[in-house]
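Q: For a teaching handout, I want to show students what a protein-ligand complex looks like in token form. Below are the inputs, and the small molecule is flavin-adenine dinucleotide. Please produce the holo structure.
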Amino acid sequence: MDRRSPSASAAGPLPRRSWWGWGTEDRALPDGECADLGALVPGAAGTPLPVPGIADLDMPLSRVTAPPSLGHLVSDAPEDRAGHTYGKAYRDVVRALYGDLRPAPDLVARPRTEREVTDVLDWASGADVAVVPYGAGSSVVGGVEYRAGLHRGVVSMDLTGLDRVLEVDRVSRAARIQAGVLGPALEDQLRPHGLTLRHFPQSFEFSTLGGWLATRAGGHYATLHTHIDDLVESMRVVTPAGVNESLRVPGSGAGPSPDRLFLGSEGTLGVITEAWMRLQDRPGHKASATVFFDGFDTALRAVRAISQSGLHPANCRLLDPGEAALAQVAVGGRSALVLGVESAGRPVDGRLAELVGLARDHGGAPAPAGREDSDTAAGTWRSAFLRMPYLRDALARMSVISETFETACTWDRLPLLVDTVRRELAATVRKTTGSEAMVNCRLTHVYPDGAAPYFTVVAAARRGSEVAMWDDVKAAATQVLGDLGATVTHHHAVGRDHRPGYDRQRPEPFALALRAAKQALDPAGILNPGVLLDPAPRPGATG
Ligand SMILES: Cc1cc2nc3c(=O)[nH]c(=O)nc-3n(C[C@H](O)[C@H](O)[C@H](O)COP(=O)(O)OP(=O)(O)OC[C@H]3O[C@@H](n4cnc5c(N)ncnc54)[C@H](O)[C@@H]3O)c2cc1C
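A: Here is the structure, written as tokens, with flavin-adenine dinucleotide included.
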């Protein structure tokens, strides 16, 4: 298994990817720092959970072997299987720390060509073996964890071998890109052309283009092109029923969009192997500013005015006082609005001044504006943002629940939604864990008609019951969101964990159409069973 960091320099030894937690092993917090962090949370355990060795994991033996023709693609090595069992949600990290690898795939397949993707699907369809497409495994919704228990075996199909930019059309500013490329390697290949995709989810370093497309990921743009959907020109998808390649055009009114069927299909309808993506010139002008507010409701009104102003800031992240304090952007109970503007060809200072002016008109107090990456609140926020997943893993080792969830709703319901989530979750955490919770909120993406609030829950759990306790809290969150007409997810996708909320919000005629599409494209029912839809009985299956 190649567990090197994709962004490591060729000069030195490459850090290894963590099989149990976020990112690379060298960036995980050492025991002492985990303990120091845990000490900040009342009721946390006194010592960190140890990270188990691969030999000590509870992982069943592999049940299937691939035919000799696929032998060079597959591995049943325990380290490979362990690293492909779960995504990177809090509940995934905790189960890995307890050595519970029972859902491990039997094999990990690493195709390097589209032909090899087809070969694996052909064999699996005939052999009653489930195939879970796997980008970089950063799913936080159980998207890469097989749970159906119906198939003769399970293969995790790791697509990171398909990692090249194949063609650049400078005239149309687009590129044909293989789906398994990780964020940094994608940008590295575009840089010599002076181009960029500019899709930067928090997971950018350890997630793939195919994963972004399959989950309809949300990037760093807080307005306008919020989801990867907006950056796609056409896609190529290998399904058990054949290859689906959409026409490469800037827009089309020819019936329902084929790409819309596969965007967000989460590995259930086919394997995305390539896409033509719309690119941008690299931004030569960037500026950012931070504005502070005494009340979160006042800040919400300011952000609404900005989102409806037509000024389209690239960044427009509103942090409530808890988030702002954690990110060391603001203290003293103030909310912070981080604004950013960028452009390839035009100065942006005027637009930033207009945005800051709007925020001031709505009760904000601006901090002095600075250039991006300088020592400003915006730069501090960005560093904290990227370090956060490693801190989350450290807290998991201290038996502290530290997890996030996100949603979206229209502006008219937003204040009620935020208040209700905070209240209900604090009550549920108290009841479930006996501890007080910190429930923080930030807005990650904003629209003229609404916004996407993103919640972080931190609370001490009882050692040994962390997953069950978080599951109770998450069920309460899903209930509140559904009751208030908010979506079960704005950009984290459905996977298996969001099925209850997704089933509730999805119209039944659409569910019928999706089931029919699944049956037509994947008649043997092998592709990521249990995601989006219940697994259907497979032809020829017994029992
Ligand atoms: C710390 C952290 C931060 C995150 N930040 C963000 C964020 O800012 N924005 C955001 O949107 N999400 C975020 N996520 C969630 C996650 O990174 C996204 O869902 C991402 O798009 C998944 O990409 P991946 O390559 O890791 O896919 P995986 O996790 O490997 O797979 C995700 C789903 O896509 C399917 N899939 C993957 N590749 C393919 C393919 N080529 N063809 C067909 N199906 C495929 C899988 O079967 C699975 O259902 C974050 C997660 C973590 C842990």
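A: Two things your students might notice: The two ends are 35 Å apart (CA to CA). The pocket of flavin-adenine dinucleotide is lined by residues 22, 87-88, 132-140, 143-144, 159, 179, 201-203, 207-208, 210-212, 214-215, 217-218, 266-267, 271-272, 389, 491-493, 528, 531 (CB under 6 Å).
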